[in-house]
Fold this protein.
Amino acid sequence: MTGPTLMTPEMRAEDSKAVFGFFTYLMTDFVLFAALFATYAVLRSGTFGGAAPASVFNAPFALLETLILLSSSFACGLALLAARRENLRNTLLALSATFVLGAAFLALELSEFSRLVASGAGPARSAFLSSYFTLVGTHGLHVALGLIWMSALALSLRMRGFTRGNLRKLALWSLFWHFLDIIWIFIFTIVYLFGII
Amino acid sequence: MTHSMLFGTLSWSVFPTNVVAIGGGVILVGGVLAVAGLATYFRLWKYLWREWLTSLDPKKIGVMYLVVSAVMLARGGADVILMRIQQATSVGAHAGIVSASHFQQLFSAHGSIMIFFVAMGFMFGLINLVLPLLLGTRDVAFPFLNSASFWLFVAGAGLVNLSLIIGDFSTAGWLSYPPLSELAYSPGSGVDYWIWALQIGGIGSLLSGVNFLTTVARLRATGMTWMRMPMFAWTVAGSMSLVAFAFPVLTVTLALLWLDRTLGMHFFTAGGGGNMMMYVNLIWSWGHPEVYILILPAFGVFSEVVACFSGKKLAGYASMVISIWGIVFLSWLVWLHHFFTMGAGADVNAFFGIMTMIIAVPTGVKIFNWLATMYRGRIRFATPMLWFMGFVVLFTLGGVAGVVMAEPPADYQLHNSLFLVAHFHTMIVSGVLFGYFAGITYWFPKIFGFRLDEKLGAAAFWFWTTGFILAFGPLYVLGLMGATRRLDHYAAGLGWQPMFIVAGIGAALVMIGFALQVAQVVRSIRMRETLRDTTGDPWGGRTLEWSVPSPAPEYNFARLPLVHGRDPFWSAKHGGAELWGHEPYEDVRVPKNSSLGVLIGAFALLLGFGAVWHIWWLAALGLLGAVACVFVRAFSENTERTISGERIAHLEAAARRHAALPV
């Protein structure tokens, strides 16, 4: 990051360490999702007389979720741009937009989950539904954690402004948020699109 | 099973009633009370809390790892004694000393403990002790994360031990295959104890993996390029990248089994469309890399030890590096050899059989490199070198047994037999454990300032190796005769009893070896003045850790070293480039202590205990508490303190005057 803050080599080393470590963590999370995707792929056909993928999924609904989540990432990018200019008002504004969109995504996901459970297609119904709820739910859990993290970050920005630590955490959080997008693209493709075809 | 809001599924019936189980519980509770009592009597709590439990110094965290692992080794060893007595006596009309169900708990607990809380603990302990020193740096990448990882490890170990007193441990084996481990067939809390102990400890391991990988990648001394790193650092990089990519799979597998058991899902159940082979594939695609996670750092220790005690540079450095990464890569392509007999078909079995044979090649490269390092070297048979000699013989034999089993037709005979048990114990004991014993003996003076007694060390080595051969030699033979693993009883007419008795004698010798190691530590502490390492370089070392006084100061290096080649300390000693200039000492920032790591471990223990007994308010409290600690830490400032340059000058002068080293 280039900014008005003058960086010493120690600060640069600190940043590179944090980014490397966090990136490695994100890779481990990728593997975690890979295992869940593999489980889903194996158990997709295990409907055990219950609902099958084609009858469960609603493509326009999933597309809406996708668009909302991608817009939240756009807002996240705006927040980072504003932070780079050290514009606190715009940063917090963009973060609020990210939060609202992220929360809307979660609300949609939860409404879909409750609709399924109400129609007798809960996670205990069949192996397919177990793996579906767990894969998509784990992504949702990550989104929720991202929202909590971002709220704490916004609070810290308000209290302390653009400190070195806050800027670094904001950059790491944005990595996390974009990572969740990438996972969602895979979910959208493998779970929803392949499910409907 | 009844369920109350306050106590979940806990009831009075969870306490042990059988005499052997009560004995285990009494020993555990007595041990904890004795330690707590002694600490109180000698007024040590404040000291322990300030100097150890809340410390973020990796050397201290490393020592704590070693202590916990040694205690767990004794626990896993107690399980061994009971199993050996059972198999030596439970023949024909004699029923042995424990019930079948208790025997199943013994082998399940033994395996889980030895892998997760002994081998992993010794490994992380050693890495903590020496990795920053070897890299010429002052700390690990994320010191607080390191403390949190350690306390998660302790919480996992604590949960295993709690199962001795409250409820039972799993009876489903160390990897808990479904459908046996599903609720329908294991309705008690045992499998849940297993799940949560491994989950909590495993997340600690995963975070450690990220931490040490970042340390190697980002914190090396100036001039220490990748190809100038000590071999131990290379093996840590390989092992930790395996941790980073394998442990998430374990996390998922355990979570899915828990969802099956707790929320009635159908991932691995016999009904509901579940697929139990999915579990076997998932757990082994973690499990096989895990074997190499454990052995690679042991290879690293041996690489340092052999070079040092042969007085030569390590032979074939580049081929060592290539073989490490060859092992890392190939370890992902062999997991199916753990279940050739489970219906994968001939072509798949052939592929995995061939890959398994190929992975022996890079390991063979290493063996030859160590032997070449010794060749025409001036070899000193100090205790670390003895462990290497034991390792190189036994490990090669055990490895060859592994190649035998890599052939699927042979594996059909040997699968789940005692031959297999003997094979993997040869790899884990004479490979991993001997490696860590060598490392602990080798680096002990750097951490504590005095060497370990050589006589008792050598005696321990001979008891361990002789005992090991006696304990596992018969198991190879019994396996070929058809004895399967996990037998709590067999017919007298089979004629197996004499060999089981020999195996029991071998196990007893190993126990004596362990007792001698404890005696070695005690005696060395008492004789510390005569064993004092005054030079900082007791073995004639080659790498950076020996360039600082023993015990290594909190800040490791008063001035950060400049590295110009491999074995930088050796060349500096022999007229090469100096390691550092003569500029005045600068201030050093070190992390302040933090009690949040201990708290995270405590909350994780509550989470695990609550989840095992379905006490959901307690589990939620544990989870929220742990997350809250993370946030408190993330937003706390002033987490470092400064050691002034004058203070360092003073400390260094004192240490070097004492050590008669050039100031």
The two ends of chain A are 44 Å apart (CA to CA).
